[in-house]
Amino acid sequence: MLGIFPYLLPIAAVSFGSAAGAPVEVVPTGTDQPAQAIGGAAGNGECPTGSTGTPKCYRYASEFPPESAWMSLDCLISHDRADMVSYSKDGPDEADNAIAAVQAVAGQAGIDPRVAFAVMMQESSGKVRPIIGDWGKSYGLFQVQIPGVPLCDDYPVNQCPSSVITSQVEHGIYGHSGRDTAPQAPGIAYWLEAQGGDVGRAVRGYNTGSVPDPNDLTAASGTRSYASDIANRLVGGLLGAQHQYTCPDF
Predict the structure, then answer these.
(1) Among candidates 34, 167, 38, 161, which has minimal Cα distance to 99?
(2) pTM here?
């Protein structure tokens, strides 16, 4: 299975705790500790304040904005961190650990951390204690459908271990191989490779588990505007905890 899906996280890489958030020891792939630096890809000049414009519908893969149009990681973080810590159940240290984990794990997986950060914001608004979504099936920062993902719910505010937060990020980026009792759940890195690095198609696959139409990114179940929402986040048109459907329901 791992030979077919090289980015899927082996079970041995994570010691799974209970869904209630029992303490676990997690060693991120390729490092002994989660990164602590909060910097990122340096932007040119000052970050714009607020949204950069009215969100638009990026319906087709050909319309998905190129990397040159994306905001820097520093700017994305500066826009979204305030919303991450505004949630009364989370604390600033937890938000910073989530940001650091995204940078570290994305770097290990060889993917642009801006994509991972945008997906995290889309899925959970960067909350380490989000509501379990999809009728009790989706967990953590990346709302993965992988039972046993370590959660922060039973820890006091601002005291969720960085190892637990890093594990949530690893599951979102690497996914799960489908061995043992947990279902196969490819992560962002898998979808980026499977779609030849095409970000629009990759996030379409992450949301729905398939890319029914490689041209029309709204032609799917799940959140039909998902790829467009991610595109708007990357260019600054959709920020923080906003969950605006940027394409109409065709």
Answers:
(1) 38
(2) 0.80
CA dist., res. 33 & res. 246, Å (int):
38
Q: Tell whether the torsion through CA atoms of 231, 236, 241 and 242 is positive or negative.
A: negative
Q: What are phi and psi of 21, to 5 degrees?
A: 95, 35
For 135: left if phi > 0, alpha if psi spans -120 to 50, otherwise beta; the answer is left
Mapping DSSP to helix (H, G, I), strand (E, B) and coil, where does residue 141 land? coil
Q: What pLDDT does 242 receive?
A: 65
With a pLDDT cut of 70, the percent of the chain lying above it is 72
Instruction: For residue 68, give the 3-state DSSP assignment.
Output: helix
> What backbone phi and psi angles, to 5 degrees, belong to 175?
80, -160
Residue 244 has pLDDT above 70, yes or no: no
Distance of CA 151 to the CA centre of its chain: 15
